[in-house]
Structures are given as C-alpha cells and as structure tokens.
Amino acid sequence: MSTKSTIAHGPNFHLYNEALDESNVYLEVEETQFEAGYNRVMVPIPVHIWEVIRQYAGIDLSYADKTDEELRQYVEEEVDKRIKNYGEAGEKVRGLISLSGAIAFGAADEPKAQQVAQGIAYFTQVREHQAQVKQAIHELEQMNRRK
Known about the structure:
The chain is α+β, with helices and mostly antiparallel strands. The protein is built from five helices and five strands.
C-alpha cells in the first residue's frame, strides 16, 4: 500500500505528500540533471512542470487561526456525528465506522468525553503545526518583498 498522496503528476514528475509527514512536500523529477553536495541538492524544474505544480493549493491552514472555543465546538460536533453514525450502523460496518477518524478521536465506541478530549488534543497539535507553517510562509514572503 502506497503512502504517497499525489498533488500533481506527469510523464516525468510526481509532486506528492507522504502519509503522516505534514512538514514536507516531495518532488520526483525523472530524466533531469541535478547537483548534489553536502546538505544540498539542486534539481532544475522544467518550466512546463512548474506551471502545472503552481496551480495546486498548498497545505491546509484552516485550523491555524481557530480559537480554543472554535476547536472545541468543531470536535464536539464531529464526535456527536461519529457516535450517531456508529449507533445507526449495522453490525457489519460498525467496525469500519469505529475506525474512521480514530487517529483524531479514538474509536467511535469509546465514551464521548474521551473522544472529545482526544480530538481536542489532536486538533490543538494540528493548529500549532499550521500556525508555525503559516508564520514561516509569512516570514519568507516578507523576506522576498524586501529584495
């Protein structure tokens, strides 16, 4: 099973995310020259590939500016939906429904308070990561405006 999530691709390039790596985007370019040195790799990106890549949105930053209350409200709504879906599901699909969203909330058959606590902890980390990325983007934009 692949851990790659394609953002854009073509005959000789692949831009993708790796599962569970929210800090990087990966670009594979075939049939191109590159330079490598200590702690450095330079890969020229052909213009036609760049034009395809730049049309795609970057990272999701939708949680970066959420308040604690907004996160709590979101998590509680999602947990309520999960519990409802789990309760309404037949025996054959309950296991799948219980696992859906388990990374963020835990199993759907766990107590609501436990799912909410786990969800708040998870989305607080997501918010922190997104805020750091947003700040790094801002700093790079400012640096490039000065030139």
